[in-house]
Amino acid sequence: MQDLKLLANDNRGQRGLESGSSLEGWHEVTQGCILPSFEGDATGIALKKAEERTYSNHNSYTATVASWRVKKPVFNIDVCIDCQNCWVWCPDSSILSRDKQMLGIDYDHCKGCEVCVEVCPTNPKSLLMFSEYTPLDEALSQWPEKKKKEK
Amino acid sequence: MAEKYDLQEREVWDGNFAASQALRQAQVDVVAAYPITPSTPIVENYGNYVANGYIDGEFVMVESEHAAMSGCVGASAAGGRVSTATSSQGFALMAEVLYQASGMRLPIVLNVVNRALASPLNVRGDHADMYLGRDSGWIQLDAFNAQEAYDLALCAFRIGENHNVRLPVMVHQDGFITSHTAQNVYPLADEVAYNFVGDFQPVDDMLDFSRPVTYGAQTEEDWHFEHKARQHKALMDSRPIIDEVFADFEKVSGRKYNRVETYDMEDAEVAIVALGTTVETARVAAKELRAEEGIKAGVVAIRCFRPFPFDNVRDALENVKSVAVLDRSSPGGAMGAFFNEVSAALYTTANRPLVTNFIYGLGGRDFSIAEAKRIFKEQKAHADAGYITTDIQQFSGLRGPTLGFFQTKRG
Description:
The complex is a heterodimer. Chain A contains three helices and seven strands; from the N terminus they run ββββαββαβα. By secondary structure, chain A is of the alpha+beta class. Chain A folds into two domains: about 10-65, no CATH class; about 65-145, 2-Layer Sandwich (Alpha-Beta Plaits), CATH 3.30.70. The longest helix of chain A is centred in the last third of the chain and has 6 residues, at about 135-140. Helices cover about 40% and strands about 20% of the residues of chain B. Chain B has helices spanning about 15-25, 40-50, 65-80, 90-105, 130, 145-160, 190-195, 220-255, 280-295, 310-315, 335-345, 370-385; strands spanning about 10-15, 30-35, 60, 85, 110-115, 140, 170-175, 185, 215, 260-265, 270-275, 295-300, 305, 320-325, 355-360, 395, 405. A seven-stranded mixed sheet of chain B has the order 10-12-11-14-15-16-17, sandwiched between helices. Chain B has a five-stranded mixed sheet with strand order 4-5-7-6-13, with helices on both faces. In chain B, α2 (about 40-50) links the parallel β2 (about 30-35) and β3 (about 60). The longest helix of chain B is centred in the middle third of the chain and has 34 residues, at about 220-255. Chain B is globular. The relative contact order of chain B is 0.11. The model of chain B has no long low-confidence stretch (mean pLDDT about 95). The interface between A and B is medium-sized, with 19 and 27 residues. Chain B: InterPro entries: PFOR_II, Pyruvate:ferred/Flavod_OxRd, Pyrv_Fd/Flavodoxin_OxRdtase_N, THDP-binding, Transketo_C/PFOR_II. Chain B: Keywords: Oxidoreductase. Chain B: This is 2-oxoacid:ferredoxin oxidoreductase subunit alpha. Chain A: Pfam families: Fer4_21 (PF14697).
């Protein structure tokens, strides 16, 4: 379920901002560092879904900042109530949601800030922080039980 | 189209009015401005023209000069023809955003009415603000009177908006001496002026929804150097385009401008290099000295302060024996900024003239023909002796004991 197939294009997540892979000279850089967001004509692109948009190589959508993260949030669909609180609060638009249904996390742009976990209202929480290297199955198997109300 | 404005063949305008008429004739779309003496009337008049239907534009009232230039950057990036005016402290407050405008290659035209920088508070003219902006990546043109303030403002739009240039342009005029002195000005007819400037053709405008763009991207060490190199190249490559615009302007107006204006320099033995209204004073002094005492005096004036016309300055001065460079700005613990640039140009000539630096006219202090003559005569003495006989840097027109620094090493 968390294999999301919402990738914009094949570049997505391949190019780190720090890679410095291209070797252009000063005469090849754009004048005024004004960068096009999309390839070709972008009329009406706001109405298209992310995976249908022609993001340019200069768009931050095609670059990953995953390496900035130390811990990652893991999403548990069995507990989630689709309240969209995490989607509203995520400062990097890294919560993937479609038709008001939570689908998971965009790990290419999530920086592990933990805001989504903080605002999650379910019991137990539907989003929890795990070590970057914890596999999904292992994380889900460690999910806590529902806490009983005191008194 | 806007209302018709009645213009006579010859008008009596001050420098501020002249500059604002250029904004009207260029039909500037947006002016974002905060008033500061002595440049206030430029944007005030623009507001009047908008209110009275002479311009289909927008006057944006802001809370500071920083916001004024920020508003101009936004409006220019959105795809409008944009201009504003400022002076002194207001210019200093804009300084951060001046670099944003030039870095984003936005052809904003800024009318700077030069005024001293506090403290002490002073509303009168000197060139402290002009030199403050010299590394900001803007093209800087200097008008010596009201007619030139009008002419150069029109040329500024044409230069900055050229697609090979795409850089912001400042037009300087001297506070009060130019900005508030009414003189005869011969304006172009509205249609002639607008046709000369042309319709604004934006590049990468943000309001083009078929091609959204990012302005102000972060580059760090990966690209910053390359972008600054490219910006410098654009500035240096603007020189022939400035010449071309000046030549086209001569065709429509009959008035010829050069990046370096020389006066009686063909056979000159001594010269004054200056900027602003001082140039006209020095020209009168040079003419009178030639008639009265036969001193072969000439004047070199810099019309285009940035990009600095290094080679033209060198060519104009290389056969002169002695040169005085006049800085109307506090040197701040060094030789004057203008002196350093002119000296650098002269250092590469085979026959290095003797160069001295005069600090004068700070905070609006008068610069008289008599003083210019005294400077010329002192240059003549250096030329005859073959070395600099006085201090290399002197304060001219200062009350109290004379002030001078650095003696020539000789023998």
